[in-house]
Amino acid sequence: MGRTAVFPERPAFTSGTFSAYSQQIEARQKGTDVTKAKQVSVWVSSSPGQIARVARALARARVDITAFASYGSGDEIPVRLLVDSPTRARKVLRDLDLRVTEEDVLRLTLPDKPGILAELAERLAGAHININYSYATVAKGAKKSDLVLAVSDIMGAVKVLKGL
Question: When you count CB atoms within 10 A of the terminal residue's CB, does the N or C end of the chain come out lower?
């Protein structure tokens, strides 16, 4: 299966509405917004229609998918999701008899400019923080990009990415 990453526009949020599933860690600093988010991963068979099944079930439950990535090989693959309601998403997906896991990740909104990924990765490497995986995209002509990072030390990453 090929790699896919999609990032629809992220809605504006207040601490009251967004804190239900994510915690704002750093306010915008030099154009970078770093947010700790709860990622829901659902494990599906590697066959046509599985992502459609997951997406349709979440849509029926009015769960908004704000980012996703699906990749892998073999019989079962993870579909990694950032959603507006991880609790509701978890229930919907478990009701489909699918294996569901969760983990904390970082979601960064970065300026779209050459070298930003190099700077971010160098800062994390300098603090001995591993990037386990990531996914990102930039809309053509956009001035900012969204990046989702699963790292070995989230709070350490937040500290070293301050002011990026």
Answer: N
The secondary structure element, H or E, covering residue 23 is: strand 22-29
Fold of 39-103: VC0802-like (3.30.2130)
Q: Spell out the domain ranges in the chain.
A: 21-37+104-161, 39-103
Pair 148, 39: CB distance under 8 Å:
yes
Kindly report the CATH class assigned to 21-37+104-161: alpha beta
Q: Are 35 and 86 in contact (CB under 8 A)?
A: no
77-124 pLDDT tens trace: 999 999 999 999 999 999 999 999 999 999 999 999 999 999 999 999
Q: How confident is the model at residue 30 (pLDDT cuts 50, 70, 90)?
A: low
Mean pLDDT throughout 26-54? 84
Contact 46, 1 (CB under 8 A): yes
Q: How far apart, in Å, are the Cα atoms of 127 and each of 31, 49, 124, 155?
A: 22, 41, 5, 11
